[in-house]
Write a structure and sequence with these properties.
Blueprint (H helix, E strand, L loop, with lengths): L1 E3 L8 H6 L4 E8 L2 E8 L4 E9 L2 E8 L34 H5 L2 H4 E2 L2 E2 L10
Antiparallel strand pairs: 1-3, 2-3, 4-5, 6-7
Length: 124
């Protein structure tokens, strides 16, 4: 989800597509001021418009359930399992323990709860 203020744009459809989002709620610019837009990917979020005016966009946002397929085989650090992000390991400088390197997503995410205490190095 991306929120932009003071865009000074009358229509945000083209910008939404260029930034690879497929949905948006907008309040167009008035002359050379204002312009507000919320952009998101429909497969990730449900956004229900409540009210839109020159002061802001009020919306209800619900995340869709997120499932890591084969999470018992997906490496927490070495596999790129988060949408549009590289593997977590590429974001960490320095060594990791062997135990950390062998952790799967299922080891860290159990029964819908993230337990980062099992890791010696916390992800960025």
């Amino acid at each position: 989800m991306l929120v932009l203020l003071e865009t000074k744009m009358a229509d945000h459809k083209k910008l939404t597509e260029e930034l690879q989002f497929d949905m948006h709620i907008q309040f167009p610019a008035i002359g050379h001021s204002v312009g507000i837009v919320i952009m998101w990917r429909e497969n990730s979020l449900q956004v229900d418009e409540v009210a839109v005016n020159s002061h802001g966009i009020h919306a209800m946002v619900k995340a869709k359930r997120w499932i890591v397929h084969s999470e018992n085989r997906v490496s927490f650090f070495n596999d790129p399992w988060i949408n549009n992000l590289p593997a977590i390991r590429s974001l960490i400088h320095g060594p990791l323990t062997r135990e950390d390197m062998s952790k799967t997503v299922a080891n860290v995410h159990q029964n819908g709860i993230w337990d980062l205490s099992t890791l010696s190095h916390h992800p960025p």
